[in-house]
Inverse folding.
């Protein structure tokens, strides 16, 4: 993502950067991300069109495209689910993560969006490398699928292009419907951990702007960003 950001100003269209080695990998909120050799780390730099509020919807595009690519390389479709806001699960364990970063255009808008994606193709971090209570990490090899980072990028780039075209043509509606059809733990009780608040309720929906909808004891809450624990 750092390399993608460095080169972004010279990029006129979508461009992928694949890292075969990382020395400063990171996840959401600056957390550590483990990147052993053979795993997948890539970033897509793009120049999104439309309102700023729509830029973050690419996390849903990326999640669905990741699922498409994983199925294309042989992962059992029924073993995959999508966890709001940015994880792909394999048999309930965390297989992949998505991180969005944007560059401003100087006028309050977004000039470039960088979509960072990490996938445990070969090796998953050990329990001592994840936060307490986090979803246990898993690797794709645990279901007998072996694929190189280069081959996986071929599948992912094609899948992302198709899903991005759908968003551009039809809006968020079809993307939202597709994401919900693969949502992890829909209908279960979840706790959303925000910087100054914890909200517990039943995971009911994703709204038209991508917010997580929880039915709580005090009414329905729409959550734009949080860590989610079931």
């Amino acid at each position: 993502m750092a390399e993608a950001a460095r080169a972004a100003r010279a990029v006129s269209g979508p461009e992928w950067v694949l890292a075969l080695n990382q020395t400063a990998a990171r996840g959401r909120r600056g957390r550590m991300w483990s990147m052993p050799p053979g795993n997948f780390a890539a970033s897509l730099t793009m120049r999104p069109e439309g309102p700023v509020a729509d830029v973050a919807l690419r996390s849903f595009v990326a999640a669905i495209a990741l699922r498409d690519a994983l199925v294309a390389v042989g992962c059992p479709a029924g073993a995959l689910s999508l966890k709001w806001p940015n994880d792909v699960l394999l048999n309930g364990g965390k297989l992949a993560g998505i991180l969005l970063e944007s560059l401003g255009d100087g006028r309050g808008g977004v000039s470039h969006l960088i979509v960072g994606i990490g996938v445990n193709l070969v090796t998953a971090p050990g329990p001592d490398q994840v936060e307490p209570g986090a979803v246990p990490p898993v690797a794709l090899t645990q279901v007998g699928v072996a694929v190189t980072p280069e081959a996986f990028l071929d599948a992912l780039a094609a899948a992302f292009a198709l899903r991005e075209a759908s968003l551009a043509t039809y809006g968020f509606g079809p993307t939202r419907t597709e994401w919900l059809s693969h949502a992890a733990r829909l209908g279960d009780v979840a706790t959303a951990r925000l910087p100054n608040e914890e909200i517990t309720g039943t995971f009911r929906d994703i709204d038209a702007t991508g917010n997580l909808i929880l039915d709580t004891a005090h009414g329905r809450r729409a959550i734009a960003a949080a860590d989610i624990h079931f």
Summary: DSSP finds five helices and eleven strands in the chain.
